Each structure stands twice: as C-alpha cells, then as structure tokens.
Write the structure tokens for this entry.
Amino acid sequence: MIGDILRPEVGMFRDVVALLRFAASHGFLRDALRGLLSTLLSDYRQLRTRIGLQRYSVDEMIKKLAAASFTATRAPANIGHNPWRMTFVARPAFDRAGGG
C-alpha cells in the first residue's frame, strides 16, 4: 500500500481543514493550531512553492507504479486522516512468460 498521495486538484486549504478536523476529534486541536502557526511562520511555504510537492491523478499513479513493475488499484479510502488524498494497493506484476 502507498498512501496519502496528493491529487492535482486539491490544495493546501483542504489539507489544513482535514488536519483540524482530525485534531479536534482526537483531542489535540491546540497543538495542531500551534503547529500550523509555526509552519506559517517558517520557510515551509516558500520551500513548497520553490520545489513543489508531487501530485498525481489516479491514472498517473497507476502508470508510475506499473513502470516500477506493480499492478495497482485505488483503495476506496485514504489510509491517512485526509479524505482528499489517495491510497493505492500495489502488487508485484509477475512476468507470466518467465513464470516469475
């Protein structure tokens, strides 16, 4: 399994909302807010803009895994707390002709 894959159409706002909902439901909202404030005051946003984060569509991720010799399908739900991200189940693609 590979999870928490960012989708091209989902921005930082949804990441923040997902984190705050998760934090509120698990009792660490104050710490999450503190962490977000620290991130806001750090160079993370500049770094994220400069180097970017990889984002993949479902098709792009399946092709990327196929290039690494895996067959993959998207899981119905993300393994992480953010429902706007994706998880994939990948299995080794065996060479049928070679019996492997």
